[in-house]
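Shipment paperwork, digital attachment
Item: protein structure file
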Amino acid sequence: MQSTPTKRTRRNHAPDLKREVILACQQPGASVAGVALAHGLNANLVRRWLRDGQGTTGVVAVGCQPSSAFIEVPMARASTPACEPIRLELRRGASSVSLQWPATAAAECGAWLREWLR
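Attachment content:
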C-alpha cells in the first residue's frame, strides 16, 4: 500500500482578522506573542503581517518618529560649597586672640600665623 504525497496548503487569513490582529498589536503594552497566542496564530506570522502586510490590510502603522529638534535641558549650576571660615583661638602668655579667617584666603592666614608666632 503506497501513500500518495499530499501537498502542504497554506492557510489564508481574512483581511479583517489581519486588521484586528495588527490593531491589537499596536495597543500600548501589547506583546506580539501574546496577541498571536490569543488569536491562535504563530507569532512569526503576526510579525510578518506587521512588517509587510500593512499596505495590503489598509492599516496604517502608528509609531513614534524620532525628533531631530534640540531640547535644552536646564542644569543646576555647579555651586561652590560654602567653605567654613578658619577659626583660631591663640594663647601666648597672658595674651589671648580669637579670630575668624575666610577659608578662601588660607595661605594668607598661614603667613599671618607664622609672623605672629615668631
